[in-house]
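Help needed: design a sequence for this.
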């Protein structure tokens, strides 16, 4: 068997398994220093390569996406459908999470002693997360829209954390391009089209080293969590295993029921083809815990493996990577109720409904980077009156869950892009059929 000929997702899976084995070996043998010095940098380089193209990709592809929709009516139709489906799927995911956590009650079994131990161990980390959430919470209700509007385009472009501002500016720019005469817009359209092609080519080049990058990223994660003491991880997983299981079960149900049902309703996509096609993006999301860094690959495989048109994918996917996070919303709902249960606080129906609303909004505001979900979780906890310090209970296992929820986040983006694309193609066929009949 020629390893180099294997499909990309198999190579990435091999990198992932080897990274896992190496990480465990490193912790067992006490090699954490060596791993940090000689393995971690390869993961960081790989991630930086993906991050460096995220801003130009969002800028180029969104501007092209909007400009290629050629009229504002088409833009508002695709935009309206996309946002409606994004909000709908996120609401379904939160509901799944809430049903699971209320039925299985993973928090009621946490012994008092363990609760105190976890609170003490993660106190400092929890405090620094709370400070960040405090800044987010102190702002007025409309501040999110103020933050979304850039006051300096170079400021927005120079910070990956301001992706929502880049999205906003690109939409504005794209709409203006559609509205000006075509002799004026053509050079710019050509420029951004060229830019997007160059970035996609860079993605292909980076993906050649993806298995090595994934190997190093997984080894780095295990090294960060376990250091030289593997038994500590075992203890933590033992204590919080049931909670993790509920989150994972919820993510699995959402992944293998909601998306296939949606694809069945809106498109003719075969479920097997969808999951095989999206696998490289899922694996990368799992290894990097960042849907922003995964975006270039999500776009590439959606176009190449799922046949999503450039027009739809360049608009739906960058938007989705920034605002659509089903996995994160589901996790936030389970985590909020778990913490309340562990602290012996009952949550009535109003609080549960508040969770649905705040989790949907919080997931929209969550940045597409590792660990962002837990910061927004603090805001949910404060809304429902649960002490935010409770996040100390779950911080230890957050990275593992982050990997899984990020994989679901990118799956959701691709599933919506496939559905919207199918609807557009159907509409175009109907129009073509009607006009040939009238001709
Ligand atoms: N890491 C997630 C993402 O990038 C966000 C989160 O839930 O922390 O999609």
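Sure. Designed sequence:
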């Amino acid at each position: 068997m020629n390893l180099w000929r294997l499909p990309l997702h198999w190579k990435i899976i091999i990198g992932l398994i080897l990274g896992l084995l190496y990480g465990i070996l490193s912790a067992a043998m006490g090699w954490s220093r060596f791993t940090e010095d000689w393995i971690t940098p390869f993961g960081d380089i790989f991630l930086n390569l993906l991050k460096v193209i995220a801003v130009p990709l969002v800028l180029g592809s969104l501007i092209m996406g909007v400009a290629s929709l050629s009229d504002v009516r088409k833009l508002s139709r695709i935009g309206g459908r996309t946002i409606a489906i994004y909000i709908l799927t996120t609401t379904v995911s939160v509901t799944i999470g809430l049903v699971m956590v209320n039925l299985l009650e993973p928090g009621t079994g946490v012994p008092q002693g363990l609760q105190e131990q976890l609170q003490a161990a993660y106190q400092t980390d929890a405090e620094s997360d709370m400070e960040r959430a405090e800044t987010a919470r102190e702002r007025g209700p409309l501040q999110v829209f103020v933050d979304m509007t850039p006051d300096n385009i170079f400021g927005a472009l120079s910070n990956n954390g301001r992706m929502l501002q880049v999205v906003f500016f690109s939409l504005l720019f794209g709409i203006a391009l559609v509205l000006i005469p075509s002799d004026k817009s053509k050079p710019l359209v050509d420029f951004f089209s060229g830019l997007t092609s160059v970035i996609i080519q860079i993605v292909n080049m980076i993906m050649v080293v993806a298995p090595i990058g994934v190997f190093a990223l997984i080894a780095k994660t295990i090294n960060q969590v376990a250091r030289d003491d593997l038994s500590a991880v075992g203890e933590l997983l033992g204590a919080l295993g049931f909670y993790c299981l509920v989150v994972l079960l919820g993510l699995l149900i959402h992944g293998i029921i909601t998306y296939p049902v949606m694809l069945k309703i809106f498109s003719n996509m075969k479920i097997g083809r969808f999951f095989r096609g999206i696998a490289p993006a899922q694996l990368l999301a799992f290894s990097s815990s960042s849907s922003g860094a995964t975006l270039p690959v999500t776009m590439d495989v959606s176009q190449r493996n799922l046949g999503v048109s450039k027009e739809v994918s360049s608009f739906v996917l960058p938007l989705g990577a920034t605002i659509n996070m089903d996995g994160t919303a589901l996790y936030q709902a389970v985590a909020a109720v778990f913490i309340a249960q562990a602290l012996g606080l009952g949550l009535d129906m109003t609080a549960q409904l508040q969770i649905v609303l705040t989790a949907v909004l919080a997931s929209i505001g969550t940045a597409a980077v590792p660990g962002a979900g837990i910061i927004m979780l603090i805001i949910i906890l404060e809304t429902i009156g649960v002490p935010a310090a409770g996040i100390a209970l779950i911080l230890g296992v957050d990275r593992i869950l982050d990997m899984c929820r990020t994989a679901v986040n990118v799956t959701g983006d691709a599933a919506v892009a496939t559905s919207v694309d199918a609807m557009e193609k159907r509409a175009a066929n109907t129009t073509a059929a009607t006009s040939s009949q009238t001709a």
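The chain has a mean pLDDT of 87.
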